[in-house]
Amino acid sequence: MTLAGRHCFLDEGRASRDMSDTPATLPRRDSQWGDSALDASIRDGSANAVMLGCGEAYLGPFGVFLQATTVQIGLLSALPQLVGAVMQWWSAIAMDSCPSRLRRIMRSVLVQALVWFPLAGISLALGHGPLTAACVIVLAVVNQAATGFTAPVWNSLIGDMVPGNIRGRFFGFRNRVNGLSSFVALTCAGLTLHIFERRGDAAWGFMLIFLAAGVARLISRRWLGLYRDPAWSVDSAQVFTFRQFLRRSPHSNFAKYVFYVGLVNLAVSFSAPYFALYMLRDLKFSYLEFTVVVSVATVTQFLMFRYWGELSDRFGNKKILSLCGWGISVVPALWLFSSHIVYLMLIQVVAGIIWAGFSLASSNFLFDAVSPPKRARCVAYQGLINGAAVLCGSLGGGFVAGHLPASFSLGSWTWAPQFILPVIFLLSGMMRFAAAALLLHKFREVRPVEAIRHRDLVYRVSHIRPIAGATFSLLTGSAGDSKSVDEEEK
């Protein structure tokens, strides 16, 4: 995702113009996009989402199943992300001498797909314990290394493929399809684990869902092969080093955005690896209950992506980030008040709405702010910062979780939480709040958009009807008949 600047980094004003001058019209929702490469991107994303839903979403529970230590749970989340970030940097540098971006993507995706097959059988071959968990961490590192090597190249290629004036709506639609695919995969994988757990064969359940993840990524690779592959070359004037980026960052609008997202990633990773541990170990949720809670956020995002995409096209990504950046600060603290599954599902609805806007706007900000020749390096350098943030956050959360006192006193008031992990969630929320307070106001929108006050934007979001509209579209297959944001408000 990543940087900017002026001069050696980015013509921030020109980048958005370069990418929005391409004439294009948005096709009807009940038709294809009028471009076989974009249609293939939708299908590739859907298959990749199945891989994420059957595979990566259950690596944390798999670590719990293998009786990994708390530190190993943190490493399972953080170490692969760091290695993936380093691979993004390497990929961006190597990309300068590679004329075929698609060929590089295809090779990396093949490695990523093949990793799931040894993961599928590892618990049956080696049993439980820290040694098996360590092997899983190694395989997860290889998986994320392949992902990291792919990310800058894919972002460069897809950014060239999607016209700027439909970007928010296209990625909003693509993310909705991905969300539905991920929800179905999460649900099926959770049901599979639930069935096998009741039979005492959870290891076989993990084997089946990880095999499904590998097959899904191979299918994704097939659709990737239908992308366009224009020749790629980089002018030496467009090349800049990570050191140059850091040196220019105090004066770079996009670099300030990068550091804001990095701080958010640090805060999120401080608690993210431990939600699965909290539900499965502390609350004794079954795999089915865990899946239900996780899936609620996924399906809520699926319902909201289209509306956030239209809002971002109209009012800008910065406005969405400013609203949702404060919202994500509140969500983790809500986990302190109850552990009832219905309450946690309601929290996940709120989280899904907010994270749908934040993730879409943060992704699209890169495409708006960075000119195409610099996009791969920008993705790589932001990946380096995010990877370091995720590692520090995950290890910091694990360290703090192991050293927090059993109770907290303030004068005559004493709080003794039943479980310690929700305290980590509260601290994560405070860190997100600090990131928003420090950096959200430091960067600006980079393309002309309509002005809107935050309270009016909140009103628009709260008065659309995504559930009714999306349910109608889903059941009838007529997504194009869904109302627009403005029509929903009337």
**What ranges have pLDDT less than 50 throughout 5 or more consecutive residues?**
1-31, 466-490
Straight-line distance between termini: 36 Å
Give the helices and strands as they follow along the chain. Answer: HHHHHHHHHHHHHHHEEHHHH
**For the residues shown, what is the average pLDDT?**
79
Helix content class: over 70%
By DSSP, the count of extended strands is 2
Work out the strand percent. under 5%
Radius of gyration from the alpha-carbon trace, in angstroms: 22 Å
Largest sheet: 2 strands, antiparallel
Task: For the largest sheet, list the strands in their spatial order.
Answer: 1-2
What spatial form do the alpha-carbon principal axes imply?
Answer: globular
Given the structure, what is the number of helices? Answer: 19
Structural class: mainly alpha
Instruction: Kindly report the oligomeric state of this protein.
Output: single chain
Task: Give a verbal description of the structure.
This protein is mainly alpha-helical and 490 residues long. Helix content is 72%, strand content 1%. A hairpin with a 2-residue loop joins β1 and β2. A two-stranded antiparallel ribbon has the order 1-2. The N terminus and C terminus are likely disordered. α13 runs antiparallel to α14.
Set down the secondary structure blueprint:
Layout: H1 12-20, H2 36-54, H3 59-65, H4 70-95, H5 101-126, H6 130-161, H7 167-198, H8 202-224, H9 242-248, H10 253-271, H11 273-282, H12 287-315, H13 317-330, H14 341-369, H15 375-401, E1 408-410, E2 413-415, H16 421-439, H17 454-463, H18 466-476, H19 485-489
Helix pairs in contact: 2-7, 2-8, 3-4, 4-6, 4-15, 5-6, 5-8, 6-15, 7-8, 7-12, 10-15, 10-16, 12-13, 12-14, 13-14, 13-16
